[in-house]
Amino acid sequence: MVVDQFSDAEVDRVFHALADATRRDLVRRSVTGEHSVSDLARRYPMSVTAVQKHVAVLEEAGLVEKRRHGREQRVVGRPDVLRRAQQLLDELQQLWHGRLDRIGELLDEDPQGGTS
Amino acid sequence: MSITSMVTDPERLTLTATAEYDVTAERAWQLWDDPRQLERWWGPPAYPATVVDHDLRAGGKVTYFMTGPSGDQPRGVWDVDEVVAPRRLVVRHGFADDSGEPVNPALTARIQVDIADREGGGVVVTITNSFGSIEAMEQLMAMQMEEGLRGAMSQIDDILAA
Fold first, then answer.
1. Shortest CB distance from B30 goes to which of A12, A98, A113?
2. Which residues of A touch B148 (CB under 8 A)?
3. Cα distances (Å, whole numbers) of residue B73 to B10, B50, B79, B147
4. Which of A42, B120, B125, B146 sits 20 to 30 Å CA-CA off B28?
């Protein structure tokens, strides 16, 4: 699925989900590979239940999903949501590139300045 | 080329740009402090900006409009949060209606400018853009990017014509 637009409620969930350092770390891990909740829980100084709650918040926001592997449930990242954010930031980067270049030209032309 | 780094963080929804210029901090500050200078770099060549109100104090507002190739005039506003001349400026940037009020205050972007002295002369300008949500970024980008791309295209045209 390609994410083009987010509704207000979706945006709130994504933002809330990413506002926590543990959850951001969980997203990073789940984008690069599938892990069971108990695997993930071993990497954080918190209980399996606490990690489960974080995963539930991420799932609610659409940033990860759970997949069944036999008797085990694994957490898998949804990189398309993050990719959309990255794409928007790349566009913003181009905009500031232009602005900083224009600042450079202006300062080369008029290095002493003086407020008009 | 004076841009030294551009770092995007899609998880935190931030863009941090750094550039170095061979001028004093006081000179660099005029880029924001003098509306005529601000107009020369804020809008891309195809979308020049005209600053209307310029009250660069904490609690003040800077309002502007840009004029596009088809005569469209998107309006923008900065709500100024912090001013430490000639070192730091923090504003909330949003698009505005005809009266200069933000279209949707929840969808503003925070822009922080830091001007530091560089060892051996000149300044390092760091600009940090942060967004509260992907939707805020979507809205600002939708309104600005077309301009950004057109600006880039017109620069390419200039190079080809030279």
1. A113
2. 91, 94-95, 98
3. 30, 10, 20, 11
4. B146
